[in-house]
TrEMBL record:
Protein name (database record): Methionine aminotransferase
Keyword ATP-binding in annotation: no
Family assignment from sequence similarity: Belongs to the class-I pyridoxal-phosphate-dependent aminotransferase family.
Entry keyword Signal: no
Taxonomic lineage from the root: Bacteria, Pseudomonadati, Pseudomonadota, Betaproteobacteria, Burkholderiales
GO cellular component: cytoplasm
Requisite cofactors: pyridoxal 5'-phosphate
GO MF: kynurenine-oxoglutarate transaminase activity; pyridoxal phosphate binding
Length: 380
């Protein structure tokens, strides 16, 4: 069989979680909470199952859920998406991302991806026959930032799509108004589309606002905006997310979606729709995770790790050059085996070999899990 994805192996998350389990390490690698969701949420899903919501829902998702998503986006970001034609429920953000890329990227089209980048973008571009054009973020004392002049230089007549992700995995950086303005200047007057991965939209710290693309009409009119209930409601295993996009883009999205998964499981959609009627869980998420971020950062102050800014997401990146000079993948493996704390090498988020001496920890963990990890890390 001639492979369609020659460079793809098993994801770094799967590999590091397996290594963590094998060595009994505290798993701060793969991003997922080690605590339970609000029990009211599975209760609502069970109620939906018992009430007989067990057959295929509408192809684009349960209407009640699409309406709840539309209301939330409108309340938070001021853009109204028509629940009937501009919102689709997906099997996690991953399916939304892959579907969005497959529905608009033609063979030979270029897609600009800012690296380090979440690992789902590149394979989807490759499956579509597109050409990924990576642009590296710069990293200094103030953390990671996007060199917009380089993005502008990478954009040209073959550019079909630019993928952005804020809050950003793995760096924990967030787009600011100046970034949005720079992006708008690049796409203005072109037919470049945007894929905005906003799965960590509710995890922005220190009082900053999430600069959703939905806030900016000239960006939103050309964007697929993606989010994930897995992140927001502490249920990463449920694999439910959504995409919002203008009707013309959504029509193309749904052509792929209906043959890719057709639709997403019914009872969880009903459960989530009911749960969304209370905004508190997502409005309180930033404070919830900011406290964990601070606990984790405080615990590493005075250690030989140096902390990069963590303005959003549930990830903390650290430099380890005072401890070791080995490559990131080796360091993450050593940390897992010998120190019994798993991390993710940031090099895994680049298409070309890039070593920055930085690894990523996930702090979406019980306080006791974080304390145990800190005890081990602070000794290094
Ligand atoms: N995008 C980013 C940036 C992510 O970190 C994740 C979570 N791994 C996803 C997309 C995928 O989300 P989901 O689990 O809902 O498919
Ligand atoms: N998004 C999660 C992370 O970055 C992992 C998702 C996955 O395992 N594919 O850690």
């Amino acid at each position: 069989l001639r492979t369609k994805l020659p460079a793809v192996g098993t994801t770094i998350f799967t590999r590091m979680s397996a290594l963590a389990n094998e060595h009994g390490a505290v798993n701060l690698g793969q991003g997922f909470p080690d605590f339970e969701c609000d029990p009211a949420l599975p209760g609502m899903v069970a109620d939906a199952m018992r009430a007989g919501h067990n057959q295929y829902p509408a192809m684009a998702g349960v209407p009640l859920l699409r309406e709840a998503i539309s209301s939330k986006v409108s309340a938070l970001y001021g853009r109204s998406y028509d629940a009937a034609s501009e919102v689709t429920v997906t099997a996690g953000a991953t399916q939304a991302i892959t579907t969005a890329i497959l529905c608009c990227v033609h063979p030979g089209d270029e897609v600009i991806v800012i690296e380090p980048a979440y690992d789902a973008y590149a394979p989807a571009i490759e499956l579509a026959g597109g050409v990924m054009v990576p642009v590296s973020m710069q990293v200094g004392e103030d953390g990671y930032s996007i060199p917009w002049d380089k993005v502008a230089a990478a954009a040209g007549p073959r550019t079909r799509l630019i993928v952005i992700n804020s809050p950003h995995n793995p760096t924990g950086s967030v787009l600011r108004r100046a970034d949005i303005d720079a992006l708008a200047a690049i796409v203005r007057g072109t037919d470049i589309l945007l894929l905005s991965d906003e799965v960590y939209e509710h995890m922005v710290y220190d009082g900053a606002v999430h600069e959703s693309v939905c806030r900016y009409p000239e960006l939103a009119e050309r964007a697929f905006v993606v989010s994930s209930f897995g992140k927001t409601y502490h249920v990463t295993g449920w694999k439910i997310g959504y995409v919002a996009a203008p009707a013309a883009l959504m029509a193309e999205f749904r052509k792929v979606h209906q043959y890719y998964v057709f639709t997403v499981n019914t009872p969880m959609q009903h459960g989530i729709a009911g749960y969304m009627s209370d905004p508190a869980p997502y409005l309180e998420l930033a404070a919830f995770y900011q406290r964990k971020r601070d606990l984790f950062r405080d615990g590493l102050q005075g250690s030989r790790f140096s902390l990069l800014p963590a303005d959003g997401t549930y990830f903390q990146c650290v430099r380890y050059d005072a401890i070791s000079a080995i490559p990131e993948a080796d360091f993450a493996e050593w940390l897992t085996r010998e120190v019994k704390v798993a991390a993710i090498p940031v090099s895994a988020f680049y298409s070309q070999a890039t070593e920055s001496g930085i690894v990523r920890f996930c702090f979406a963990k019980k306080d006791e899990t974080l304390r145990l990890a800190l005890e081990r890390l602070a000794k290094l």
